[in-house]
User: What shape does this take?
Amino acid sequence: MDWSKPSVYPDRIIINFGANPASEISVTWRTNEEIDTAYVEIAKATGDPKFWENKETLLANTEVLDADTIETAEVLAHYHSLEIKDLEPKTIYGYRVGDGERWSEWFQFETASDQLDDKFSFLYVGDAQNYILELWSRLIREGFKTAPDAKFFIHAGDLVNTAHKEQDWHEWFTAGGFIHSMIPAVPTPGNHEYRAKDSLENAAKERSLSIQWNPQFTLPQNGPEGLEETVYYMDYQDARIISLNSNRELEVQAEWLENLLQKTTQKWIIVTYHHPMYSASSGRDNPTLREIWKPIFDKYHVDLALQGHDHSYARGRVSPGENVLEGVNLRDQTGTVYVVSVSGGKMYDVGGDWTDLGATKDRSGENTQLFQVITVEGDHLLFESFTAVGELYDSFELIKTEDGPNKFIELRAKAINERIEPEN
Assistant: This one.
């Protein structure tokens, strides 16, 4: 596995937003163990090629990842990271990382606006997991091509297939390339991010979070104790973006989520986690998740739930609940909209009716790699799903109303035909 080993040169450079994306960004990268002092240089970007003359040089934190004894990981690396605060809103910054002698190229990112209703878009994908370098690369690059101004990128779990495997993470970083270095990632862990680290854990049927997860992502530390960097939130303008961990301690997260949403003043609430509340494929239901989390989603009017796991596509919604005005067409009103999507090359058949579970499934798809572009502007949220060759596969719009539930506008008529493979 020498091809994936770290060297003295920075690699796997990735950015993540802090809790306040208008003023906070985190940068993380990797080298071998020879590099124990590392820096971030950052400056406001301009059209002048010498913008860097006004740079600030900041000392990064360095931690050791010693996974030499973990099967499939077998790596010793230094991870360098820095949380950068007090940035200016709606500003493009250039940055590079290095040890003072060996530097990366200059990358750019933009902070969020301080005007809450300003328009912004972001990308969302389900499981990359399999055939990552082989097939996921075309999908994530098509996503960037379609939405180059996307402000962040939600990855809804199962980024890799084998939690600690260096080859998998090498493929994930290589497939995304500079996209990871310019569009902040919002990752949530899937079941494949958990695996036994050694024979003792295996014998005890215990599974640990990927040994690479915490060193390689620098995420907001505002979740419940013990679930740091897997449960967290950020406020991007008037949208509260929440990552939950559907693998662990659902009740603990429910209490945390209730307390968080009680105090939420943002117009939009968007939640991402891995295992679907309503499954896209047969035999994969998650009733415990629905029992514990859905009442909170309903109570606090979560707008959109972005999920993975089922390796197919489904989009549907639940009733808006009580207090619907008389004379309103219920088909035009909605509670939470639930989406399941897949971006990698592993596919399952669709199946399962949501009706008996109190929801309506409006759109399905199988054997199709997909990415989603979500655009928020004031009271409007536009959802678009695209295939790996840029075809519009699904679309709808949510509109905020003064006192009632969201208005729902179905736009799938603009999309290609539903892709359901005929049974043999």
The first helix runs from residue 132 to 146. The chain has a mean pLDDT of 94.
